[in-house]
Write a structure and sequence with these properties.
alpha+beta, disordered N terminus, about 230 residues, three-stranded antiparallel beta sheet, 4 helices, elongated, Alpha-Beta Plaits, Translation Initiation Factor IF3, five-stranded antiparallel beta sheet
Length: about 230
C-alpha cells in the first residue's frame, strides 16, 4: 500500500511538471516579429455638421434672447430640410463676456464688456449629397458659425476587414522574406495584434453664405496595421 501511494504521488508530480515544461519551451522559442500595413479607400455615406449661432449684446439677457430666436429659426430650417429631430443635438451652449477696445483718452468713460452667447448643435446626415443644401438653409435662417463638416461611414467593418486582410498579407510576405534571408523556417503564429484608423476630409471654422454651397465628400482612407510574432526554427 505504501509503494502504491509513492507511485501515485510521483505520477501527480509528473503531470504538474508537464505544463511548466511546455511554458519554458514557449518562452525559449526563437521568434520573428513583423509588422504589416493595409489601406483601402471608400466613399463616405454619412456626414456630421457642427453649426451654431453667436450673438452679442450689452446685456446678458439680450444676448441670450437674440441667440434663442436665431437658433429656433435655424433648427426649424434644419427640420424643414428633412433632418429628423433626433439627429439634431445641442453640443454646447455658453454665455461669456468680451472686452471692448478701451478709449485712449483718460478723460473718456471706459467701455463695459459685451456679452457673447454661443449655441451649437451637431447634425447627422445619413447621406453626403444634402450637406450643401442643409448648410445654406441653416445660414439663411440665422446660423452664423459653421464649426465643422466631417464625413464618416455608418458601418466601417467591411472596410476594416479588407484593410486587415491586406495588412496580414503584407506582414506574412515580410516574414517569408526575412526568414528566407536569415536561413530559418517559419513556424506557427504565436501572437497577432491589430489596429485600425481612417482619415478623410474635414472642413472647420467656415462661413457658408453662397447659394448651393459646394461640398465634396471625397474619399475616406481606411487603414489597418498588424503585428505578427512567428515561431522560427
Amino acid at each position: 500500500m505504501k509503494n502504491s501511494s509513492i507511485v501515485f504521488l510521483g505520477l501527480m508530480l509528473l503531470f504538474l511538471a508537464v505544463p511548466n515544461a511546455i511554458a519554458v519551451t514557449e518562452n525559449n522559442a526563437s521568434k520573428l516579429t513583423v509588422q504589416g500595413d493595409g489601406k483601402v479607400t471608400t466613399s463616405p455615406d454619412m456626414a456630421t455638421i457642427v453649426l451654431g449661432v453667436e450673438t452679442q449684446n450689452a446685456s446678458a439677457a439680450g444676448a441670450v434672447r437674440e441667440n434663442a430666436g436665431l437658433m429656433n429659426k435655424t433648427i426649424n430650417a434644419l427640420k424643414a430640410s428633412g433632418i429628423p429631430e433626433n439627429e439634431i443635438q445641442t453640443s454646447s451652449f455658453s454665455l461669456t463676456t468680451m472686452p471692448q477696445d478701451q478709449p485712449k483718452m483718460a478723460s473718456e468713460k471706459p467701455k463695459a464688456p459685451v456679452f457673447l452667447a454661443t449655441n451649437q448643435v451637431t447634425v447627422k446626415l445619413n447621406n453626403t449629397t444634402d450637406v450643401g443644401r442643409v448648410l445654406d438653409a441653416a445660414v439663411s435662417a440665422g446660423s452664423n458659425s459653421i464649426q465643422q463638416v466631417s464625413f464618416d461611414l455608418r458601418d466601417p467593418r467591411p472596410q476594416n476587414d479588407k484593410a486587415l486582410t491586406l495588412a496580414i498579407e503584407d506582414a506574412r510576405r515580410q516574414a517569408e522574406v526575412a526568414a528566407k534571408a536569415a536561413g530559418v523556417k517559419l513556424g506557427r503564429v504565436l501572437e497577432i495584434t491589430e489596429g485600425y484608423g481612417y482619415t478623410g476630409p474635414t472642413a472647420r471654422n467656415a462661413l457658408f453664405a453662397d447659394i448651393a454651397t459646394p461640398i465634396q465628400p471625397g474619399q475616406l482612407e481606411v487603414s489597418a496595421s498588424v503585428t505578427l510574432i512567428y515561431e522560427i526554427s
